[in-house]
Amino acid sequence: MVTRLRAGAIAGTVVGGCCASRCFNSGTWQQGQAGLFALAQGHFDTARAGIKPATLRLPDDCSYCLSHVSLSCLSSLGRASEDAKRFQLTEQNPGVNTAIWSGMMSAQETAAEPRPNHSEPEPEERRVPEQPAAMLEEDMEVAIKVVVVGNGAVGKSSMIQRYCKGIFTRDYKKTIGVDFLERQIVVNDEDVRLMLWDTAGQEEFDAITKAYYRGAQACVLVFSTTDRDSFEAIVSWREKVEAEVGDIPTVLVQNKIDLLDDTVIKNEEAEGLAKKLKLRFYRTSVKEDLNVNEVFKYLADKYLQRLKQQSAEETEVVHTTSNKIGVFNTAGGSHCGQNSSSVNGCDVINLRPNRQRTKRSKTPFGSCRLLIVSRHKSGEGLGRRFIFQQDNDPKHTAKISKEWLQDNSVLVKENLLCPVVVDEMTDITTSRYGALPERLYVLQSGKVIYKGEVGPWGYNPEEVRKVLEKIN
Ligand SMILES: Nc1nc2c(ncn2[C@@H]2O[C@H](COP(=O)(O)OP(=O)(O)OP(=O)(O)O)[C@@H](O)[C@H]2O)c(=O)[nH]1
Prior knowledge:
The protein is an alpha/beta fold. 25% of the residues lie in helices and 22% in strands. The chain is built from 12 helices and 23 strands. β17 (340-343) and β18 form a beta hairpin. Guanosine-5'-triphosphate binds next to α4. Guanosine-5'-triphosphate binds at residues 152-158, 169-172, 174-175, 200-201, 255-256, 258-259, 285-287.
């Protein structure tokens, strides 16, 4: 069975990245998939989010697959622009408001198959403006996951709302778990999509929020001018984030400086803390819209600098090791493409190097940072799926990857020009991009007092809210 998805707008609120996806039919979990889930509620536009379209082949026994969005480089596929016009789930997955994106192989495998009949007009609300093909071909953008952390009521949600929606509300509504908004900006001529994760400030949500730090690429540590505790908690917030994601571009923010008259933190204390933590320090007033843009611009800039630095280091590796860095071309499908062949009765995927690697070039995968190749072999269902993760991290240029590819009948024809990580559905993708807890729990004195259904379908924040209100 082939389930096809087309790009565009999905009715949905992104609730998290996923580390696994579940086939409801077979009950099996497919691990190692990365990305963002969209759930019914609100609006999430995949095209705007920079997610490129693909068709996806689901195994024959899987008619209701809750799957993933992966950061794959599909823009170069001939069909991409056509597919990108709008998103639509076919009749085979009714009611499943999930974006499923897969890697090159899936897309190429299905390319030869007949398209389902979409002759019926789409409902008005599903239609999205068509995008010029050229944009889809070339506009790969950098997406940065930013987590905003700090004690409760310091203004995290307000800051994100101000930045993404340009609004400020006086009402305080405690964040339960996490929330998400995004904004696209241009920094040094680069399109950057900031995905801002608003996390709850209260300790009782730690278990939930920590899961969302995973894969974060930048962090805002916020304290309030009028809340001494929030200032003193900064070091511990930093440690929590670092424990999950290591050293990422981070900024220290003192919010509510419009209330400077009521300050409980001396200037030199705040500056001293920034110095001690070696962080850029901003004073903001979300209320007065002071310095908020600067905070996020700085982070985006810092992140881009790191990317550039990484690229430069990789180039060095090209000259010094036999494992060259670049992008690899996954020509051919997994079982019948012209570039696949058979060795000892096994299918072989031929990976060919692509010699160019220029940003925004028309070269296939030219600006790809992560390439996931999924491979299904008919009849073997979920068991035969390989994911090659090209994330340009020199550490991953491991000999072992190559050996693994060869052991699994993936023929590497020449030296690949890129580091290749073989993610055997284990933890690499998960730990970097996954963020979705399997269930929501509420614990009290070490005891589970609420256990939700398997998420994200089974998430029920309202239930959680009620439980929390009861125990507070
Ligand atoms: N005066 C002033 N009030 C602010 C500012 N920023 C936020 N607030 C107010 O502070 C309160 C808390 O703001 P939130 O954004 O909900 O705080 P939060 O950090 O997200 O809180 P949690 O969700 O509990 O973690 C709200 O009443 C806001 O209106 C600011 O810059 N100045």
